[in-house]
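Collaborator request, handled under Task 6.
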Amino acid sequence: MKELVRLEGITKAYGDHVIIPPLSLSIHDGEFLTLLGPSGCGKTTLLRMLAGLDTPTKGKIILDGQDITNLPPYKRDVNMVFQNYALFPHMTAEENIGFGLRMKGVGREEAAKRTQKLLKLIRLEDLRSRYPSQMSGGQQQRVAVARALVNNPKMLLLDEPLGALDYQLRKTLQIELKDLQEELGLTFVFVTHDQEEALTMSDRIVIMDKGEIQQDDDPNTIYHHPKTKFVAGFIGESNFFDNGKEILVLRPEKLNLCGGKDGDDSHPAPRFFGTVDDVIFYGTIDKVFIRLDGTGQEVLAYQYFDDVHRWQINDHVGIWWYEKDEVRVER
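Structure tokens returned to the collaborator:
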């Protein structure tokens, strides 16, 4: 896949406080890349430097072969969607979308054609005359994305644009955004702290912590083969078993429970025994919390409702798993 953007040794510091230590990253043409991490990890700072809203202390940003490190935002072939959408309240949906075209002096006929195309693409043709105050959060989000796309940028940057929406609407718009990106074949760089958003939409996820890249991989690899304890703990839920040399990581869905004295030869022998401390109903599963004998460590296992036995508080259980499901990370 062709490289569209290259960050070369990017650093950002405010005085003696380093936000992002030297960092290098390639972004491919036509991919959906997500910058994921906790608050303060540097992901938004990195996005702002791509947009030209912040300037790197050191390093270069190359876009399609051009050094744009010190170019102002309006001279970059990049657009950005903010979390609050920043729509003009006195303009209709159609006028908001077409605003950038007017600023660039695009002819009225061409501007109308491109605006109409975007309205159709985001399925808001019937709401073209509505003002932002007359639209739902999801509709405003679509207008903000269309406004950012109408100038045909090489890359679209999205700064947690779904953060203010309710859960069901976020799930719907996650799919819509990914479908839109694939239809346009455009490079999207998406910032979020929401793991589900990242796993659902991304071709590639870059997990950051303290300004550094912890792992850069596809969603499947990130989830099933985390490289560090931080990644394993940040993406999904994990159990950690320290054997003194390394840390064994096991996802709750990979743990199996049996009776505390179960001698069944149909599965591997239990590695640990413990007592069920709590059982929480979670829709499609029960979350079963077990306090291990001896160490007192708490372990989480998922129990699916088609299992033969549903565990109860104070049950004594054995915990077993298949060796292939183990992931080892450094201590």
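The cover message to the collaborator said: "The chain is about 25% helix and 35% strand. The CA atoms of residues 204 and 217 lie 6 Å apart. Please let us know whether this matches your experimental observations."
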